[in-house]
Structures are given as structure tokens and as C-alpha cells.
Amino acid sequence: MRLCCKMVDTRGHRRVFSTMSKTRFEMYVKAGSDGKNIGDCPFSQRVYMYSQLKIPSELVTVIPVDITNKSEEFLKLNPEGKVPVLVDHEKNKVIADSGTITGYIHDSFPSPDLHQTYSGPAVEASGGVFGKLAALLKNSDLASIPKLKEDLERELRTLDDYLNCADCKGGFLVSDRICELDCAILPKLRHVQVAGMYFQGFQIPEDCVALLDYIRKGESTDVFKQTCPKDEEIINGWSRHNIMVVKQ
For residue range 126-164, what is the model confidence (pLDDT) as tens digits? Predict the structure, then answer.
């Protein structure tokens, strides 16, 4: 497992198409508060994890982007200003959107097979979690909180049910190793744990045993540990949306 790649400090006069970079790929992710490490964006962590599992480390430079102070060079790459962004200098291509990026990486590096094209029941079982978390955290109506917590818990139980079913084999969502779908959902589940507890006192139910085991297994892998933002980065990221702290 290749778990090293070059990181570029982009504070101050952030460089984008740097003449110092010798790598085929440059991958732009959300920066943490120190400007050096990855920030709280789960979509950035998704492509960061996937690239480490797929791309030889000597071929990629990871560049953190201060999304509160984007350079003109970065906005030329992606006028929408969103991260993540992948630049392939060999093919002279700029790819945005985390799902499109992982698909491009898969096409460029088919091996190992991380089930990029999987469209089975795990997709539906895991697909609603982050949206329900965002609805809960961004809500400003105190009366709506119990219902929004129920909605999030229901999505988590749906995922727990899938992890308990016969279709789920090997401990991860699709196989016995982390695949593309795991790279997408594990960062979001980390947000549920950290931001859900901090802002709403929300915890994943203890009886969701399969889900909690899955989270522990995923978060114990090197690729997750080396790409996961600090808890305070997750809290700071959500705080920018003027989130209420309501620990009921």
C-alpha cells in the first residue's frame, strides 16, 4: 500500500502550476487551518484515500487549498472554486468532482480493482447518511431537531442492516478490502461521529454493532489514518456555516 505523496504548502503566494513540481498529477484538496494538511472536506479525503490506493506516490503531488482565499491560478483551473481538483499534466486535463476524479484515476490505473463501477445495494444503503447529517446540522428550527435526528438514525440503521446482510462479505462495503465506495462513505461517517456529537450531542446507536465495527475497521487502516483531518478541523469546517450548538 503506497501511503506517501508529496505535500505542498500553499499559504501566502500559493503556487498552482509550479515549475518545481515534477509529478504527473497535482491533486488540490481543502487545506486545514495550518495551510499544510488536509482540511475537513470529506470529498477531498475521498479522492486522497483513493489516489493513495491507486497512484504510485512518485506520480502525485497533493496541494492543500485555502478555500477562503483562493488564488487566481486555482480559479483558472476550476472557475467554480470547488475542491477536490485533479490535474493530469501528461494528458493536459483538469478534472473536478470527487466521483469523476476517482473514475478518471481508475481508468488511468485499473489495478488494483477497487470496484469503481459497483452499483449494488451498498450504494443505496450508504447514500443518504451525509445529506441527513447536513440537514440536522444546518437546521435552525429547534422544534425540528428530534425529527431530523430520527431521519439520520434511520439512514444509519439502513447501512447497519446492509452490513449485517448476506450481500455484505469481507468486512467492508463491497469486498474484504477498502474499495471506492468505502473511500466515499468512511469520511462522511467520521463527520457524523465528530460534528454530530459536538453540535447536537448525536451518537451512532450502540446497537448498530455492524456499523460501529465497520467504522472501527475502516478508521484503523493506514490509508484512512493518514488522510483523515483532525477532529477540530471537522468542527471548524461546520462552524463556518453558523451551526447552532444544541446538545440535547
Answer: 999 999 999 999 999 999 999 999 999 999 999 999 999
Only one residue has cell 486535463, namely 93
CA distances from 98 to 95, 103, 134 (A): 9, 9, 18
Q: How many CA atoms lie within 13 A of 53 on its CB side?
A: 27
Q: What is the pTM of this model?
A: 0.90
Find the farthest-apart pair of alpha carbons in the chain and give their distance in angstroms, rounded: 55
Q: What burial letters (b/e) apply to 103-130, b meaning 16+ CB within 10 Å?
A: bbbbebeeeeebbbeeeeebeebbebbb
Residues in the chain: 248
User: Could you report the per-residue pLDDT of 216-230, keeping only the tens digit for each?
Assistant: 999 999 999 999 999
- Among candidates 31, 90, 35, 29, which has minimal Cα distance to 61? 29
First to last CA, the chain: 42
Phi and psi for 94 in degrees, rounded to 5? -120, 125
